Amino acid sequence: MNYKYRKSERDTSSLQPKSGIRPERPDISGLGGWLILIQIGLWVSLALLIADMSQVNVIMDPVRWEGVRGVDSELYTEGIRPLLWFGVISSVILLMIVIVNLVLLYKKKKQFPRMMIVLCIVNVFIGIMTWIMIARIEIPREQHVLDPTSAFNLTIRSILTCCIFIPYFLRSVRVKNTFVK
Asked: What would you report as the CA-atom Rg of the chain, rounded to the nearest whole angstrom?
């Protein structure tokens, strides 16, 4: 290896590799620390997405919306059904990303931090699109079955999650030392 030496030959602590490789700190690696929260979040997301996907037939049933909730068929066809399809498609996409992230996490692959950033950004995008789609549906006051407030709150939580975890994945020594394969 090529080393850059300072003027003093006696100072051996100033040896630095020229290659730019950061020396690994073995005491800060592994799936501990904040990565425990990431693991818990991924497993909870997986369970919730599977639960959502198991209820698709019930949620997509027009009788549920028209009969039980009193929504007229035109409102269901023009407003609610496209929103439900967007929800199903986005749930499938999120489910695939979460499964890929779990595999990358436990194999300690270098792509994991990048895929977690993708998951955060996709969550924000889906939250914004859902909020916009709900807000665009014109529902008469007596038939109001969708509330854009919950979609807005979900979007804000997703943005806050991005603000916390994207810098973590970009700067954390533990993340850089753990995901090297």
From this structure: 24
- Using CB atoms within 10 Å of the CB of residue 11, give its burial: 0 to 12 exposed, 13 to 18 middle, 19+ buried: exposed
Q: Residue ranges of the chain with pLDDT lower than 70?
A: 1-27, 62-73, 75-77, 138-146
Tokens of 11: 């100072």
Which of 153, 156, 148, 154 shows the shortest CA–CA distance to 131?
A: 148
Question: For 92-131, how does the pLDDT look when each residue is reduced to its tens digit (9 = 90+)?
Answer: 999 999 999 999 999 999 999 999 999 999 999 999 998 8
Q: To which H or E segment does residue 163 belong?
A: helix 148-171
Contacts of 17 (CB under 8 A, 6+ apart): 1, 2, 3, 4, 23
Instruction: Yes or no: say if 81 and 63 are a contact pair by the CB < 8 Å rule.
Output: no
In angstroms, the CA 152 to CA 130 distance is 9
- Encoded tokens for 114: 């990048």
Residue with tokens 């950061």: 22
In terms of C-beta density within 10 A (0-12 exposed, 13-18 middle, 19 or more buried), how is residue 167 classed? exposed
SS3 77: helix
Which pTM does this prediction carry?
Answer: 0.74
**Percent of the chain at pLDDT above 90?**
41
